Amino acid sequence: MKRIEVKKLVPYVSIMLMCLSVSACGQSTTTTTVTTEEITVSSEENMTSNDNQPQGEAPEKPDGEAPEGEAPGEPPSGDKPDGTPGDAPGGGFGGTGMSSADIDYTGAVEITSADSQDGQTYESTTADESALLIATSDDVTISNATVNKTGDSDGGDNCNFYGLNATVLVKDGSTTTITGATITSDADGANGVFSYGGNSGQNGAAGDGTTVIISDSIITTTGDGSGGIMTTGGGITKASNLTVETSGQSSAAIRTDRGGGTVTVDGGTYTTNGLGSPSIYSTADITVSNATLVSNLSEAVCIEGMNSITLTDCDMTANNTKMNGNATFLDSIMIYQSMSGDADSGTSTFDMTGGSLTSENGHVFHVTNTNAVINLNNVKITNKDSENILLSVCDDGWSGADNIATVNAVNQTLEGIILVGSNSTLTLNLTDGSSFTGSISGEITNAKGDSVSTEVGEVNVTLDKDSTWTLTADTYITSFDGDLSNIVSNGYTLYVNGTAVN
């Protein structure tokens, strides 16, 4: 999740050729079927779409919608993000990376075989050196340790991907158990506890079994690019009852990067104070239960590409007040694909059961340049932003994929406005006594004041017999499956494929 891209200018002696690509859209055809009691309205469209979505700055996505047949609004200004630091909301730190094989790992204390240590102090003041380096396939136990790290690194993605300069680095297949530790990092590129699984940053590839099991510990980081618990390369992290606080930019409390892995967290408090530093940044499969998650300047969570976050009985608060990198929106739950290579493309999944989600500023959910599935079950959602945007699905600062979201609400109360860009798709399924009070629109303006869409895209809504939708404005959708009596018009009209149905 890099934050700044460094580009080399290459002088050309000969002629520079410029190519313009042109795309065309075909006409669409629509069929409609309406019944009085049970209603099903569908449309079938044949379209050749423009694959080049608006390029722009980075991680806060501009919603893109436009009048039929027109381009999706004003594209965000700036260069297309390519995954360098600052491009992604919870991005990495520094410049390019090499390979773990090219890194000369060093530690103030190095453990290279089975060991158990209690009550020790580990400290490093040297750049690119860990305070504690555990490089073995054997089991290691660290109890009641004090670990301190200073010494900034300019190692860039070597810090993000492979653990260079981490305060505690575990690698080479070790299962390391850490209990009762106090871990402090006051340096750039110095993650707190790093589990590197050794797959050389190959997304989806198995790791070497490296596992960090950490509990009842305190982790504090202050520098940029310094997450709390960090997992990459197919590593495994199991954390419980941690108190994690980060203050730097691109320093998620629960952080992953290229090569992914598996992270399981139970209990604890995870707080971030820096720009582009969500409580959780996922390029992996992350499961968190019974935890308190607080983000004071950025998104609550961010999912990049074909990865997931599952939350159970967590209390989460975000106050995203400052756009980072290519972002042109403010939001609390961001789901996107940067195309930087840090995550494979595919379905992104956010699953939350129970607990609470408080969004202090901006859109509650934002989906761009990916196919996202959002599963909500009995979550208390509080939206304190005056615009009351529950979800936006539209163009932002990336291109290369469609903007597609499926929201599955089970026993869930939803309130607010849903925005769907003209070239975007939403499927909304309300079941098991769920209710939605709100409207759906395609008129989208980003946080910079630029119009990115003026007409709604494809929207398909399903209500089961126990769920309801109360309109707060006239709304146009593509298809509806359910009983009309479950729609409370509230003085407004629902149009399905252009036909008023209530």
By DSSP, the count of extended strands is 43
Output the structural class.
Answer: mainly beta
**The biggest beta sheet, please?**
23 strands, mixed
The global form is: elongated
Gyration radius (Cα, Å) is: 24 Å
- Domain count: 2
Helix proportion of residues, in percent?
under 10%
Number of helices: 1
Poorly predicted sequence stretches spanning 5 or more consecutive residues: 1-86, 92-96
**Overall pLDDT metric:** 84
Strand content: 35-45%
How far apart lie the N and C ends?
47 Å
Please characterize this protein's 3D structure:
With 502 residues, the chain is mainly β. It folds into two domains: 285 residues, no CATH class; 193 residues. It has a 23-stranded mixed β-sheet that branches. It has a 15-stranded parallel β-sheet with strand order 2-5-8-11-14-16-18-21-24-27-30-32-34-38-41. The chain is elongated, with a radius of gyration of 24 Å.
